[in-house]
Design brief:
The structure holds two protein chains of two kinds.
Chain A: E1 3-7, H1 12-23, E2 27-34, H2 51-64, E3 68-72, H3 74-90, H4 97-116, E4 121-123, E5 128-133, E6 136-141, H5 158-161, E7 164-165, H6 173-182, H7 204-211, E8 219-222, E9 228-232, E10 255-260, E11 265-269, E12 275-286, E13 296-300, E14 308-314, E15 319-328, E16 335-340, E17 343-353
Parallel strand pairs in A: 1-2, 1-4, 2-3, 4-7, 8-11
Antiparallel strand pairs in A: 5-6, 6-17, 8-9, 10-11, 12-15, 12-17, 13-14, 13-16, 14-15, 16-17
Helix pairs in contact in A: 1-2, 1-6, 3-4
Chain B: E1 2-3, H1 14-20, H2 36-56, E2 63-66, H3 69-81, E3 89-93, H4 98-109, E4 114-117, H5 127-133, E5 138-142, H6 156-166, E6 171-175, H7 187-190, E7 194-198, E8 209-213, H8 239-277, E9 282-283, E10 294-298, H9 304-313, E11 316-317, H10 333-337, H11 342-345, E12 348-352, H12 361-376
Parallel strand pairs in B: 1-11, 3-4, 3-5, 5-6, 6-7
Antiparallel strand pairs in B: 2-8, 7-8, 9-10, 10-12
The chains are: A alpha/beta, B alpha/beta.
Chain lengths: ~350, ~375
């Protein structure tokens, strides 16, 4: 029997993760990380970290008869995730704050807390699998392809995986819900959260308008030849591949193909102009061993996106993924996760595309 | 489990529960009715009012029963500021309980002038600074009798004197919710116009408190309705709660001297033992007047949130004294006002002793705390 720290969000997956750990006979401590707060320190009422979410987690913990605490990590989340999210949009990027949170806040803080509380491992409700194979900890996709979350975990390394468990990884979502119903957990029928936790169910543009101290600069919309075809209220309103909201009618559909925050210029083009043959990555990390240059892999470059074949080119300064087939609308700032079959090899943040 | 969080709430005294039992089923009447069953309830309520008044040195009709300490503070601050159709000013301190601070913030939002006076490094209020902020617009001054986090005792009688020398007609309120358990409180000696207490802090039931309202004090109601409590607090009376509150007040008052001795011994043993094992784990306000039941200590390098979790696992229920709605520890506004940085404030813990504390428990708890601190260092 070991002592484990379960990160409970108030959703069904982490509820079942806690129940499974308890069932295996571990000493379980449940925690909710309070990452975000409304004005005056009040818990938000929409999105994640709401009072009702932590109440659900608290009630499930009580039902499982495990101690439960809400831990305040708002400072580090604000600095590591929210400020960066805002900065990225202002820089013309399309950030993925959930991955940034996993990368810089959530797992680091959970590991620290587990050690402080005398726990041996951290447990979450992610749909992914960790196994020790070929002399190292390996990360694999969930058995439930529709719910797989290995993409958002692709930045995890050996130190973290050695102390991490994902009990629902070998299960499908329907199985998890059945288990929850069988145990009579109040979260059994709770809908999956979809929103960015700190933005909630509003448009991210409204959030940026409220929280960015920097005034968004108006600019021009140009076509592929650089001819001005319109104006816009700020680059944060756009993401690569966006078709709606351009305010331009020119017959054939037009898409955002490039965002230049320095000149506040948004470039539009035809579908063919969105095609990307390769992407460069920054902040690359490998789960176990670095992938050799020239290796054939598959890549997922957006949450819930498909796996597409590519070849990795590694030189001392950067990692480039060359796709077998051109891909459409890849936004710098998003994460690319690199796979061999079902195994996650690593990942990085897309810094350039061409 | 060692319960050292009596400042948050303390177990109900058995005699209190016994005094309340007849009013659960047998004497269930609405004290506002005219028939026999109602009259019995009304009689019990007024008996409780007389007993509560006697403990505070007040007259019975100066007691307004409320649904707890927060409601009593709301009634005091809002009621006095808004009395007689005014938008009166409030002078208070930065270290009050949220019930006072948030009431003041609400009043500010509807146009009342609010002044919040800073405190010194121990959280003590300067009576002259309070009096100096009182002007022609001021309707009410609110200064707590003792701070709920640190236990520091405020010079309320001096505040009253200083304020009266400037404006004799300004209403002075004191939030005595935390103080009542161990401090002899006589409204005549204090000279205040309003005083709030809450039953559950000294062995009474939760959800019941009272506001002492000196005869002649202008006060607008916060709860409007059937006009109970002379129109100062509408709503069907919590007869059972009022009876329990009065019993707890009587027992607390008659037991206070020995309570202070017993609890001070345990608190002092706790602090001495902890300091012996970790020389830098020092009481924050040990050199100033403070409640005997409070040990407020700073343990450098140890985050209070973490220590609380470990102590919970080790069988000690304590507090960081400041938590948000979700239960996460937040940085205390009291410690911030005393000049602590957020990181320093996160190293402070409150251990509070009470009527169920056993002889030797202070030392025992200190040993457990010391062991957990050692494990974290």
């Amino acid at each position: 029997m070991t002592s484990v720290l379960v990160a409970m969000s108030g959703g069904v997956d982490s509820s079942v993760a806690a129940a499974l750990m308890k069932d295996e006979g571990h000493d379980v401590i449940g925690v909710t990380l309070k990452l975000w707060e409304g004005s005056g320190g009040a818990a938000p009422t929409a999105g994640c970290c709401t009072v009702s979410d932590s109440e659900d987690a608290r009630r499930v913990a009580a039902q499982l008869d495990i101690p439960y605490y809400v831990l305040d990590h708002t400072d580090v989340f604000m600095g590591g995730v929210v400020d960066r999210f805002i900065g990225d949009y202002l820089s013309g990027l399309t950030p993925n704050p959930c991955i940034e949170c996993n990368r810089t806040v959530k797992f680091t803080e959970l590991m620290v807390r587990a050690r402080e509380f005398g726990c041996d491992a951290v447990v979450t409700g992610h749909y992914a699998q960790v196994r020790r194979e070929r002399g190292a900890w390996r990360l694999f996709r969930s058995v439930d392809e529709a719910k797989d979350q290995s993409y958002v975990l692709s930045m995890l390394g050996q130190d973290q995986l050695a102390n991490l468990r994902f009990p629902v990884g070998p299960l499908t979502k329907p199985q998890v819900r059945d288990l929850a119903r069988g145990l009579g957990l109040r979260t059994a029928g709770k809908p999956d959260s979809q929103d960015i936790c700190f933005v909630g169910n509003r448009d991210y543009r409204d959030f940026l308008a409220d929280h960015s101290r920097q005034t968004v600069r108006q600019g021009t919309i140009v076509d592929q030849d650089g001819a001005v075809v319109g104006t816009h209220a700020g680059v944060t309103n756009f993401t690569i591949g966006q078709r709606k909201g351009l305010g331009i009618a020119v017959g054939e559909p037009r898409f955002v193909t490039r965002i230049d925050p320095h000149t506040a210029t948004v470039t539009i083009g035809r579908r063919a102009d969105l095609e990307v043959g390769e992407v460069g990555l920054r902040d690359v990390s490998w789960v176990a061993d670095p992938v050799e240059s020239g290796a054939s892999v598959t890549v997922q470059y957006r949450a819930h996106g498909a796996l597409v074949p590519a070849v990795v080119h590694v030189d001392p300064d950067n990692v480039v993924m060359v796709f077998d087939e051109p891909q459409l609308a890849i936004a710098p700032g998003q994460t690319a996760a690199i796979y061999a079959g079902r195994e996650v090899l690593g990942g990085g943040i897309i810094s350039s595309s061409g | 489990m060692h319960y050292v969080d009596h400042a948050a709430t303390t177990p109900m005294r058995p005699s209190v529960w016994r005094s309340m039992e007849p009013f659960v089923a047998e004497t269930f009447g609405n004290s506002s009715g005219s028939h026999t069953i109602s009259r019995k309830a009304k009689n019990a309520l007024e008996d409780a009012r007389e007993r509560a008044a006697a403990v505070l040195g007040a007259r019975p009709l100066e007691i307004v029963f409320t649904g707890g300490g927060t409601e009593a503070d709301n009634l005091a601050v809002k009621g006095a500021a808004l009395a007689e159709g005014r938008r009166g000013g409030v002078v208070t301190t930065l270290i009050e309980h949220e019930a006072v601070l948030e009431s003041a913030a609400f009043l500010e939002s509807i146009g009342c002038p609010i002044t919040r006076i800073a405190v010194d490094g121990f959280g003590i209020v300067d009576p002259d600074a309070i009096a100096g902020a009182v002007d022609a617009d001021t309707a009410v001054v609110s200064v707590m009798a003792a701070n709920n986090e640190t236990g520091v005792i405020e010079p309320v009688a001096d505040v009253v004197e200083a304020v009266r020398s400037v404006r004799p007609d300004v209403v002075v309120h004191t939030d005595a919710v935390q103080a009542f358990a161990s401090v002899d409180l006589d409204v005549g000696e204090l000279g205040v116009d309003l005083l709030a207490i809450a039953g559950h802090k000294f062995g009474g039931p939760k959800g019941v408190g009272l506001l002492y309202v000196k005869t002649g004090t202008p006060l607008e109601a916060v709860l409007h309705g059937g006009g109970q409590e002379l129109g100062r607090r509408s709503g069907t009376h919590n007869v059972m709660g009022a009876v329990g509150l009065a019993t707890a007040m009587e027992e607390t008052a008659s037991d206070r001297a020995s309570f202070r001795d017993r609890v001070a011994d345990e608190r002092d043993d706790f602090e001495a033992r902890l300091a012996a094992l970790h020389g830098d784990a020092a009481p924050t306000v040990g050199s100033v007047p403070r409640l005997v039941q409070h040990a407020h200590v700073r343990i450098p390098g140890v985050r209070n949130e973490t220590l609380l979790v470990r102590l919970d696992g080790a069988g000690v229920a304590a507090s960081a004294a400041s938590a948000c709605q979700s239960g996460a520890a937040t940085v205390s506004h009291v410690l911030e006002s005393m000049g602590y940085t957020p990181d320093e404030a996160r190293e402070c813990m409150r251990f509070s002793f009470g009527w169920t504390t056993e002889p030797g428990e202070g030392r025992l708890v200190a040993d457990i705390v010391a062991a957990e601190v050692k494990a974290l260092r």
